[in-house]
């Protein structure tokens, strides 16, 4: 196949997820000539098409469905409520198409040239793009940003089989709600799908090798989430390993070992044991880029060991979150342009898991803070005393604040509640502003709101919560 010249660019971004396309937009905003390379036919990456957005669409509809089923306690009588799962999926798919078109529009608006094909580095300063017809386009790149993301990880014997063993990709294409679902892995992906399919009526079981749901979150929140999941009849097995998965009549037989030694059956098995970075076949062997434990190594400005090559998002060892990738994309391009930049403080990155109830956090857990040598004080306030929580019939959960005992600086905020994701931005501002618990306790919050729980948790650090 002949090779074509695609031109010369200040920045070539490989990968169009929330890191890559944001980096390309930023480059256009700063007057840099930018190109965006994407192997799929549409822009947006895993987050838009196979991750954040479609999952949250299903979660929202599952939450709404349960609210309608329970509407009678609010004095609203609804007859013959029926779930039309086909329409739920269609709404999701229609929304994705519109959002994908929006990303494409932003590329045109910011004068970013897009190339469809597999991008890899032929040598520093030269990116080759191989299209589906095997034709090759060469792009001269003064700077290259690697934003190729990650994909689902699985262990031997757990490989997707095109039938009922699925990852986060295949489960989005189910045609009907399964009668039973077994989820292997209790990270964000696992608990979100467990939550939404339980709301839709599936019998759900979660198996986690470690000792708690959401292993990266605060232990106290994880314990309470487990109680609330079990109250919803979601079965949870922690400290348990999946020994084998074998086809059986109507689905699969799963053999468990560890704390739970048992044989279970399920129609669908979701493998959600983590993600692995897409760093293979990028031509890195032609560069000085270093890889350790599967991740590309970068400095605080996202530079690799090869001058002119940056890496962002899931391919580097920072939190695998869309908003982290976007922030890194902006930082990398600003650094290329010569704008004054400040390295990202990853201790202040918020995380939200959109199960029901939601889990949101920013900063250090109580355990993390102690491991770093802090003497800590903890303030905890439940939602059930609050008028707003009673009004909305969303009384489960609490706010937990972890503070330094000597100076009162707030080190972490952790929220378990149906609206936790909407509440956590206040906590991000609190940590960025390095507020003390005393200062937060004197910040007047509007009444009645759920945010009062944050103020009350600050009071609780000093043993003086008002409504408890």
Structure characterization notes:
With 468 residues, the chain is of the alpha/beta class. It folds into three domains: 3-151 and 277-337, 3-Layer(bba) Sandwich (FAD/NAD(P)-binding domain); 165-273, 3-Layer(bba) Sandwich (FAD/NAD(P)-binding domain), CATH 3.50.50; 357-461, Enolase-like, domain 1, CATH 3.30.390.30. The chain has helices at residues 20-29, 45-50, 52-69, 85-109, 188-199, 219-231, 322-337, 366-371, 387-391, 420-432, 437-441, 452-461, and strands at 3-9, 11-14, 34-38, 112-116, 118-123, 126-130, 136-141, 144-146, 150-152, 165-166, 180-184, 203-207, 235-237, 240-248, 251-258, 262-266, 268-271, 275-277, 291-292, 295-296, 309-311, 351-353, 358-363, 376-382, 398-404, 410-417. The strands form seven sheets. It has a five-stranded parallel β-sheet with strand order 4-3-2-8-21, with helices on one face. A five-stranded parallel β-sheet has the order 10-17-11-12-13. A hairpin with a 4-residue loop joins strand 22 and strand 23. The relative contact order is 0.12.
Task: Give a quick set of tags describing it.
five-stranded parallel beta sheet, 26 strands, FAD/NAD(P)-binding domain, alpha/beta, single chain, 12 helices, 3 domains, Enolase-like, domain 1, 468 residues
| Percent of residues in β-strands | 25-35%
Helix count, DSSP H or I runs of 4 or more residues: 12
Could you name the CATH class of the largest domain? Answer: Alpha Beta
Main sheet attributes: strand count, strand direction, barrel closure: 5 strands, parallel
For the largest sheet, list the strands in their spatial order: 4-3-2-8-21
Q: Can you tell me the CATH topology of the largest domain?
A: FAD/NAD(P)-binding domain
Q: Would you count the extended β strands for me?
A: 26
If you compute it from the alpha carbons, what radius of gyration comes out, rounded to the nearest whole angstrom? 24 Å
User: What is the CATH homologous superfamily assignment of the largest domain?
Assistant: FAD/NAD(P)-binding domain
What's the architecture of the largest domain in CATH terms? 3-Layer(bba) Sandwich
The share of residues in helices is 25-40%
Mean of pLDDT: 96
Terminal-residue CA separation: 73 Å
Indicate the overall shape: globular
SS content category: alpha/beta
Low-confidence stretches: none
- Total number of distinct structural domains: 3
